[in-house]
Amino acid sequence: MSKIKKNILLVDDDVDYLFQKKLELEKEGFQVFTAHSIKPAKKILEETSIDLAIVDLMMQEKDDGFVLSYQIKSNWPKTPVIMVTGVTAQTGLEFDNITENEKKWIKADSIFTKPVRSEQLVREIRRLLANE
Q1: Is 37 exposed, middle or buried, given 0-12, 13-18 or 19+ CB atoms closer than 10 A?
Q2: Nearest to 12 by CA among 109, 125, 115, 102
Q3: Are 54 and 111 in contact (CB under 8 A)?
Q4: Packing angle of the helix pair 15-27, 118-130 (nearest 10 deg)
Q5: Distance between CA 25 and CA 120 in Å, rounded?
Q6: HEC assignment per residue over the chain
Q7: Domains and their CATH numbers in the chain
Q8: Cα 64 to the chain's mean position, in Å?
Q9: In this predicted model, which residue has the larger pLDDT, 96 or 127?
């Protein structure tokens, strides 16, 4: 009996990052759907049952990641969201030690600073999916 693959939505405006992470996650046994912005991500969410989303914080607009994460949690509240960001390198803002109150408005279950090690990301995906 084969295991059903979990569907992951990966959203980032960096096509190289999308390609690399898609390969890494598929190697771990996940079905990966990619989008380079909010609009195609919404289309995937409406047409496909997504088990978990990985969303870049800053894409075309500086708040795209926040907006998409909020929309996912509003429409599919049980879908875990991992936010990844390179904003620390660009601005110095730190997201590593966010409080529970900050998590409420950020609407992400986890936040990682890029670059994220593949093992670290996969471990977090498995942890969040185990809590479904």
Answers
A1: middle
A2: 115
A3: no
A4: 60
A5: 12
A6: CCCCCCEEEEECCCHHHHHHHHHHHHHCCCEEEEECCHHHHHHHHHHCCCCEEEEECCCCCCCHHHHHHHHHHHHCCCCCEEEEECHHHHHCCCCCCCCHHHHHHHCCCEEEECCCCHHHHHHHHHHHHHCC
A7: 7-130 (3.40.50.2300)
A8: 12
A9: 127
Please name the residue that has the structure tokens 């075309």. Answer: 60
Tokens of 24: 């890494």
The closest alpha carbon to 82, from 24, 126, 38, 39, belongs to: 126
pTM (two decimals): 0.85
- Residues 5, 83, 68, 12, CA torsion sign: negative
pLDDT bucket at 76, cuts 50 / 70 / 90: very high
End-to-end alpha-carbon separation of the chain, Å?
22
Amino acid at 74: S
